[in-house]
Design brief:
single chain, alpha+beta, Pnp Oxidase, Chain A, UbiD C-terminal domain-like, 5-stranded mixed β-sheet, 11 helices, about 25% strand
Length: about 425
Amino acid sequence: MFDDIQNYPKGFRVLVNAFNSWRRFATVLGESPEAGARGIKRRAMELFKNVELVPPVVVDSGPVMENIYTDDEVDVDVIPVPKWHDYDGGRYIGTGCYTVTKDPDEGFLNCGTYRVMIHDKNHVGFYVAQGHQGQIMRDKYLSRNQPCPVAVVIGDDPLLFVATTQPIPYGICEYDWAGGVRRKPYRVFEGKVTGLPLPADAEIILEGFAYPGVKKLEGRFGEWTGYFGGDAIEEPVIEVKAIYHRNDPIHWGMPPHFPPDDCMRYQEVVKSALLHLELQNAGVPDVADVWCPAVAGTRFLVIVAIRQRYPGHARQAGHAAMGCRIGAYAGRYVIVVDDDIDVTDLNKVIWAVCTRSDPETSIDIAKRAWGGRLDPRINPEDKRAGNVFNSRAIIDATKPWEWFDRYPIVNAPSPETLKDAQEKWGFLLEEK
């Protein structure tokens, strides 16, 4: 937490690395601080599968309304905003944030995390990757030559922020899901400019409209891939009509850096939980475990462990993982392993790839999959032309079904031997 920031009032603070430990993130989900990655994943699966939605309750006031600026008073520089990376194209007020939009046809809300760059005192960027709910809603308005009402919320309940970074099913509002987890409704007020329901207990809110045909150069920005996400291009902007902030506000910054980082560590367990559920819902049986490693941005690599039950089971699991909502966007490799492999241990996963797969017969290639401008491997010319497809490799690193029972025995102690050794000699490994 940074305070006493030059040229800003004392009390205007910047917070970073909020999710930098499993203990801290476990408490966000209501889990024991001792749960570790596996326990947090199990908790996340329970929450995404079983939570009863609780809609927000409308209130007249809240802490975020302690300070309100409108019209000529609007100046986003009232908030301290760092330049997060050496080569960023500007300062980004939106990293630990989410935007609130409303579908003009069906009327439901979406809260999604998208990056927000400062252009000037009352204009900020509205970059959303293709295919995301915020982009779909925004473009419905703009394609009809209508302004899109939008608000940017900076700093809120960490649980609600987590919800906004994940693909909650279309039509379900993140307020409702997070309210269900908390078992109490979130407090919202009606925005003075847009009428959108906005969180009364947030730190900072920017409210305004994106107008048809109004674009400004946006980027570059150091992204979750570990690279800068392409050249600066023109993107829609938000004309900020109102700023709300509580006294002594906290600007929550969560800028992505070279992975694994603060952004990816929590997404590692949440995305793994969601993908595991999606595979179960797709009818893939005996999925033992799923992992989306932080070092691969939780997207470029997906690992699925199965208990093989029939011929083609491994390929079914691999193609399903590639095609479902979590695995579809900006993926690269799907590795399917047997259930004796710890999917969280990349050493064991690579060992399985090297000893159980064959390059000629074990790899399927899918073409023209859902890519994005942030993918560093897509040709810049293709990005400029809007051709942001990529390909996927599905690697079957399971023992061949036809001779599964005759596969060589692994040269490792049996669980029984390990247990005996631990009981006899484990004290030697204890910290002094």
